[in-house]
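STRUCTURE REQUEST FORM
Protein name: Methyltransferase type 11 domain-containing protein
Source organism: Rotaria sordida
Requested output: structure tokens
Priority: standard
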Amino acid sequence: MKCLIKTVFWLLSVFVGFIAIGLGYLKVNDTVREKFFARTMNAFSNENDTAITNIRCNQVLNHASVHGHVLEIGSGTGINFVCLHNNTRIKDYIGIEPNIHMHSYMQETINRWQIQFPVRISGVSAATMTDIESDSIDTIIMTFVLCSVPDPFAKQILLEAYRVLKPGGQFHLIEHVLSDPNIKPMTNSFQKLIEPIWTIVGDGCRFKPIVNYLDEMKTIYSNVEYENIELPVPFFIIKDGLKAVLTK
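Status: completed
Returned output:
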């Protein structure tokens, strides 16, 4: 029995050791971490998840809201083309994705959906979109991206979005957020506990009070509306979400 316990303990120690080494390597090597995240996102991006797709397509990226010259911030592997591919109101589309290892997966998605409108993929930072003219974009979309943007760049992205939007243009976004400690204290505490590991595996993703950024934008945009929602996901730590519309 003692021999069995020692063997199990040794195996667990080796397993934990390998995980620690792997996380440490991901933390210090940006290229490996970005490749790992791109492959993970491609593997787990499920276009057939009807619950989350319903929120994406019908509540955030519906055809009535997304039109004209469209800019997506953090286009990733192209998961949102499940909502956009048959939108005849889109004139053209620019996808901003700094993680260049996502681009090949996105191109596969474009080919699979047989996208008809012109598409351009850019690897620039959304905080400095110098290749996009001011007042040139009708609709900006962003889904589950701002959580991965470190300060002060998160605020800068919202300001850059304002610059490139046409007057009357809209910015539609959805995010998972830091749970309210007054409503879900245990979830909030657990989010903070695992955030150091979550940030490494999620390529910078953090549990953030996104609403604070939006409140700051109320003095910039002509209108800022947001709503707290519960995301239909199996992991309780990312169930709390927020959807918003910012109008220039």
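Reviewer notes: The longest strand covers residues 165-176. Strands lie at 68-73, 90-96, 119-122, 137-143, 165-176, 223-230, 240-247.
Form closed.
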